[in-house]
């Protein structure tokens, strides 16, 4: 969504407010035709690209340049010749990596509510089932390298504002595979009046494939489409059968049925045995030669008669392949809480101008340091050596041990720029602190403060307040997305009839992030010991506090059992010793 104001008739620039308007101050984001400069990416000038995606992809490209210290290079390609001397020392990347580290915490754990009671003496069947699902999800996460995939996807989300996961069933490995995609390949088809939080019913993953002259391949466009639609009949598309005949007497596929009352085909999915569904997800994977596309043919309406459909390993053509799922197996992760926009906002959004100012100040500081280290020297009354061939004075060389012969009244002056250099370095620190404040990354979290300079732990905790609110908001924006991902993992395993996965309603699962700030483990241990000893804290509560502090306790309930048994054995041994030491009665 966006708001445009202005009047081109009187030569005024258009005032545009959208999810990427914080980049409007960059000349490369607004060319003479209103589109971003070609230097951002040739793809943004492609005719197949939807108009609403142009600014988003340009913003991604610009943010990636800042992350890779290439903002100056990008500005040079856009026509700013002076930007080639720009100094970039990784401040943008440091902000992104610091935010990512605090977001993810030291660990991530899959939790299924109720699983903690599975080892109770009176454990219910629900608790045992929850523990089994929790164990299977954790084994799947380990096999699919979930923490590693999260690092890749979440860094994209923190930097660009969006991340993307794709789930697919692998019949050979008999498990769900997890992939991450660049959000620049993500093109959802959003309805005009749809809520930003609603799940789209049609999604494209698309990118251009470069020309390969050696193999004789032209430049192509690949589009993978996931679309929700009504269940097809078994004879739909068959030779000799018209569409009217199909509608009159639809033939259900294996496992489907026809509802005479509703007049539709329906299917009972394993995760909803009591609720038949008339919806399924179709997969289409095809390529188009770029030169075959006419101007005006956008991504969502490419001509199917010019498409080359790809085939699966088993020879199945990927043309509206029925995945036998009632959802699209894609999870879009937004970096920020949706506020009228489907896409999120980068962590660098509010500090982009501060990063530009910081780079310019670093550039000025580098120039000043060169004149401070090798100052400009003026000599008056010097007698330079004369070149015997040309008869001209030789250039003077300044180096340690050099002696100049000066005539009467001669003098030497040195241009001292050390004061300007000191001011520039102080300015650098001032801008960096300002950027950290606006990004809600305290200096202590960036590692620029000596811990000994912090007066007390309470003062440290107060300084981390903005970081706490930042991390809480980012985790809140992701909580339901990871719950959805784990729900999809269970359902796809059910659809693939994987061993050990129950054919029933899936259980809710969530991903719990570890603590994002350092903890005083010794202080927490002392607090737990005092609380449990004084019986103001339950032993189970104390164990969970130690878990949250980072102590290597895998299962809180098992730890409680071990401690209780140790106490009982100690009490029994003490009782036996007391009995053996007591003299017999006369």
Notes on the protein architecture:
This protein is α+β, with helices and mostly antiparallel strands and 586 residues long. Among the domains are: 25-86, no CATH class; 520-571, no CATH class. The protein has 14 helices and 17 strands. It has helices at residues 54-67, 71-77, 91-104, 125-143, 146-160, 243-248, 352-373, 418-438, 443-446, 457-463, 465-495, 521-533, 539-548, 556-581; strands at 2-5, 15-18, 108-111, 162-170, 175-181, 186-188, 202-209, 220-230, 256-259, 264-267, 279-289, 308-309, 321-322, 330-334, 377-382, 406-414, 510-513. The strands form 6 sheets. Strands 6, 7, 8, 11, 12 and 13 form a 6-stranded antiparallel β-sheet that branches. A 3-stranded antiparallel β-sheet has the order 5-4-14. The chain has a two-stranded antiparallel sheet with strand order 1-2. A hairpin with a 4-residue loop joins strand 4 and strand 5. The model is unreliable at 5-12 and 238-246 (pLDDT under 50). This is Phage portal protein. Residues 564-586 are annotated as: Disordered.
């Amino acid at each position: 969504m966006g708001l445009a104001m202005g009047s081109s008739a009187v030569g005024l620039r258009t005032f545009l407010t959208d999810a990427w308007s914080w980049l409007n101050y960059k000349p490369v984001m607004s060319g003479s035709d209103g589109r971003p400069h070609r230097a951002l990416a040739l793809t943004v000038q492609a005719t197949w690209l939807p108009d609403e995606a142009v600014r988003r992809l340009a913003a991604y490209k610009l943010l990636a340049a800042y992350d890779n210290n290439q903002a100056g290079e990008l500005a040079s390609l856009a026509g700013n010749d002076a930007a080639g001397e720009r100094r970039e020392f990784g401040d943008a990347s440091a902000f992104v990596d610091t935010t990512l580290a605090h977001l993810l915490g030291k660990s991530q754990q899959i939790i299924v509510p109720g699983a903690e009671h599975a080892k109770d003496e009176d454990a219910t069947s629900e608790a045992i089932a929850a523990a089994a699902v929790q164990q299977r999800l954790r084994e799947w996460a380990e096999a699919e390298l979930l923490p590693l995939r999260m690092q890749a996807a979440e860094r994209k989300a923190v930097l660009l504002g969006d991340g993307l996961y794709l789930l697919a069933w692998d019949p050979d490995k008999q498990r769900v595979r997890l992939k991450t995609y660049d959000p620049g390949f993500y093109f959802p088809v959003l309805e005009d009046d749809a809520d930003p939080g609603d799940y789209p019913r049609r999604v494209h993953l698309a990118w251009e494939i470069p020309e390969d002259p050696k193999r004789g391949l032209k430049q192509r466009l690949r589009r993978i489409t996931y679309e929700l639609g009504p269940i097809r009949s078994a004879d739909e598309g068959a030779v000799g059968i018209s569409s009217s005949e199909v509608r009159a007497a639809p033939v259900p596929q294996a496992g489907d049925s026809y509802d005479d009352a509703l007049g539709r085909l329906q299917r009972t999915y394993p995760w909803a045995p009591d609720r038949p569904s008339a919806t399924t997800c179709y997969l289409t994977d095809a390529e188009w030669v770029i030169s075959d596309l006419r101007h005006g043919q956008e991504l969502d309406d490419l001509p199917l008669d010019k498409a080359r459909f790809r085939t699966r390993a088993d020879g199945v053509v990927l043309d509206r392949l029925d995945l036998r799922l009632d959802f699209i197996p894609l999870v879009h992760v937004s970096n920020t809480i949706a506020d009228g926009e489907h896409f999120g906002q980068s962590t660098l959004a509010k500090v982009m101008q501060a990063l530009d100012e910081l780079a310019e100040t670093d550039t000025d500081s580098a120039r000043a340091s060169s004149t401070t280290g090798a100052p400009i020297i003026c000599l008056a009354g010097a007698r330079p050596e004369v070149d015997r061939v040309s008869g001209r004075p030789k250039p003077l060389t300044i180096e340690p041990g050099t002696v100049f012969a000066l005539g009467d009244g001669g003098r030497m002056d040195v241009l001292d720029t050390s004061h300007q250099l000191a001011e520039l370095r102080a300015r650098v620190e001032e801008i960096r602190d300002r950027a950290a404040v606006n990004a809600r990354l305290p200096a202590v979290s960036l590692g620029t403060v000596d811990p000994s300079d912090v007066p007390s732990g309470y003062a440290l905790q107060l300084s981390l307040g903005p970081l706490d609110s930042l991390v809480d908001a980012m985790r809140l924006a992701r909580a339901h997305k990871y719950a959805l991902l784990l729900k999809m993992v269970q359902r796809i395993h059910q659809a693939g009839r994987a061993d050990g996965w129950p054919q029933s309603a899936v259980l809710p699962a969530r991903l719990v992030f570890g603590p994002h700030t350092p903890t005083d483990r010794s202080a927490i241990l002392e607090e737990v010991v005092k609380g449990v000893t004084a019986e103001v804290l339950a032993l189970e509560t104390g164990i969970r506090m130690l878990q949250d502090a980072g102590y290597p306790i895998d299962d809180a309930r098992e730890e409680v059992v071990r401690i209780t048994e140790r106490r009982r054995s100690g009490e029994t041994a003490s009782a036996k010793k007391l009995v053996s030491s007591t003299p017999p009665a006369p």
